[in-house]
Specification:
By secondary structure, the first copy, chain A, is of the alpha/beta class. Chain A contains 12 helices and 20 strands. In chain A, strands 1, 13, 14, 15, 16, 17, 18, 19 and 20 form a 9-stranded mixed sheet that branches. An 8-stranded parallel beta barrel of chain A has the order 2-3-4-5-6-9-11-12, surrounded by 4 helices. A two-stranded parallel ribbon of chain A has the order 7-10. In chain A, helix 8 packs parallel to helix 9.
Chain lengths: 413, 413
């Protein structure tokens, strides 16, 4: 995790824009592996049996998944397609659906995933398909935290998880249906910042309360504890990365304290970062095509909100670099080509003075970026390149063609 | 335009769910043609030379486009792919890009579209490619209106259009570059409600001021006036449809008054509705798979925000019908399967008591619905069916497969 969100691989970008049509995503393998090691290393130090999973939804590119798996991570999947690609790549892990259909369970159940159930009501469905030996439950602790309202993953208004007061009923029902080994999962926050990094120890404490309650009420010993994701990364230059050693150590302390207090055998710790591994490894690289003096100044680039919707739908901040040697700055809005006024990557930000043809680099586009892309306004999604450890570029996803956009009709291919 | 947003073709839906896998979109040809006739008929009455265009971005399905073209509409395109499919279908119209690249102009320029330019700075680009005889400009009148903040299409913070004070400079420059015939365009609002239907006459008055100013300053007579879209439709049962006769008549009055006042030859009127034609003709049909008693009650359906993102990203209201005979109601949230807490089609709404297997119909999903869909969380987009005039179902788009989601990598097809 590089603290410096203003960093980007300037020379590589300079070279890439001469070779490839903009816009495109560029991922840095070195940084990706570095993030994996920072994360896994911090937990391995305190939890020799630690099981890290990557939240595929953050970046489902198969080549990205292979690198992360090579660093010792499994997968956290949330849909059939994520389980499908993981099986193709030989990566196992956990499956956390929500409002999962029978067809979905049926598709996923033989793909090497521990099923993490979102509700008691799913047990009969699973049992019908054949109860697995191991089952986990996602718990809603009744409280939640996130930097953006839409990403609240717990609390009374959240659609996720078994209410913690009913957890023991869920485990009992699973036991009765034939499950023999159990996990517990909580995913309550998103992009939790350094200022609140004691949050993770807090949710572990809450999980132990539930584990103890389940043991007391049902005799079931929970063997795995998945603390979810939500490990925040800096987007703004004023923000700092979580200190993973501090986070892991604080969780270690809660483990020691709680296992002793409740007389529990230590469960295996699992975590499922997505953004933390991938976000700062990816850059959306685009070119300036139009500079417009309207009521204010707009810099029009060839990338649009359909490539990376976070600013459009969340108002999210992304740092932007302009690849030129301008000493002057000016206040501009950097906008895309979609006919929605929210297609603005930044609004009224002081940036180096740009001209047509300049390269614009949008940072923190490695997680929840391409993955959230769409085709509104008939805009195709663009290519992804990997800057490999040996400094070469490798295309890891081609751009969509116009024909691709119509391939599910009689007109494309 | 049916006033009754609670309407849906119940018998057809009942039949369709026995034949097709949910979720799917169902469009009603009869209603679509009806909306086209209501809209075009109202304007034809007052403007014999009226030119209606359909905003393809609202629903780019080729079979939908064919029906609308058959009703006498051209197209309003905003991207290469929209121009591409229109050319394939033999439909001409207008092209309004924004921050348009040279490649984009080059692709579009021979596709039978009048180019509607978003900025003066685009003239040299166009001129380089060969100046067309006819050019239109999109004007930003400095004021705007919309029911949702993200859809403000004009005003000082809007990225669109030539500031109206500079309009004459744009026309002069186009003339100098070789253009001989001119249009003017304004798209300032979205989903304008009946309570503000005098808004359309207002923008026409504003356009005439600019037309007169341009004539006075440059001698150029503008021959076409495109008043954009933004014709609102009811989403909530308490809302009413615009009265298109009143709207068209009010515009007629402004035309008469302004042409006389400024001594202008009457320009040809153009409008480009999207939502107004398509929205209420489409229904997202899904089934209940999970009913969850958490801190409150959630009804989990097989459709998700990736099928129709308006509630997730705008908090938009959509009417929902539950196809059962329940006399009881209960307050529930209807949610999809994506791991974002905004994947809730309705929150805490009183609906007929549902059970697993019930069909849930989300209304007003014919425009800006499938078109805004995406694949986040690895979720495929689903099929589209047309209920034809003779009461048959026709598949007009198949569902995406998992392999399709990975086809731009080495793993799908």
């Amino acid at each position: 995790m590089n603290e410096n969100v203003t960093y980007y691989p300037r020379e590589a970008v300079q070279k890439a824009v001469t070779e490839y049509e903009t816009p495109f995503f560029l991922y840095e393998e070195k940084r990706l592996r570095g993030n994996c090691r920072t994360f896994k290393g911090a937990f391995d130090k305190y939890f020799p049996n630690f099981r890290p999973l990557f939240a595929v939804k953050a970046n489902p590119n198969p080549e990205i998944l292979k690198i992360i798996a090579d660093e010792g991570f499994g997968v956290d999947c949330s849909s059939e397609s994520e389980a499908w690609i993981s099986e193709k790549l030989g990566i196992k892990g956990m499956y956390t659906g929500n409002y999962t259909t029978e067809e979905e369970f049926s598709f996923v159940k033989d793909k090497g995933m521990i099923l993490n159930l979102d509700d008691i009501s799913m047990i009969p469905t699973i049992a019908k398909l054949g109860m697995p030996e191991t089952i986990s439950f996602r718990i809603n602790p009744g409280i939640g935290k996130a930097t953006m309202e839409n990403n609240v993953f717990a609390g009374p208004d959240a659609k996720y998880g078994v209410p913690f007061e009913k957890a023991h009923m869920a485990y009992s029902a699973a036991w009765d249906a034939g499950a023999k080994r159990f996990g517990i999962h909580m995913m309550t926050g998103s992009n939790v910042p350094i200022s609140e990094q004691d949050y993770f120890a807090g949710i572990v404490r809450k999980l132990f309360e539930i584990v103890a309650d389940v043991k007391e009420k049902t005799g079931i010993e929970i063997e795995m504890m998945n603390i979810g994701g939500g490990f925040g990364v800096p987007y703004h230059p004023d923000e700092k990365s979580l200190d993973m050693d501090v986070v892991a150590k604080s969780i270690r302390e809660v483990f020691d304290e709680q296992c002793s207090q409740y007389g529990l055998k230590e469960p295996r710790l699992i975590a499922e970062p997505g953004r933390f591994l991938a976000a700062d490894t990816g850059f959306l690289v685009s070119r300036v095509h139009v500079i417009k003096d309207s009521y204010k100044k707009f810099v029009g680039i060839d990338a649009s909100a359909n490539d990376m919707p976070r600013p459009a739908i969340y108002g999210a901040y992304h740092y932007i670099s302009v690849l030129n040697d301008s000493k002057e700055t000016e206040k501009v809005s950097v906008v895309g080509r979609i006919c929605e006024n929210n297609d603005q990557f930044v609004r009224d930000r002081e940036l180096p003075k740009t001209k047509v043809g300049d390269t614009v680099v949008i940072h923190n586009c490695g997680g929840h970026a391409y993955a959230m892309g769409h085709n509104y306004n008939g805009r195709p999604r663009h290519a992804e390149y990997l800057l490999t450890l040996d400094g070469e570029f490798r295309q890891i996803r081609r751009a969509e063609t116009i024909e691709n956009l119509f391939r599910t009709t009689n007109y494309g291919n």
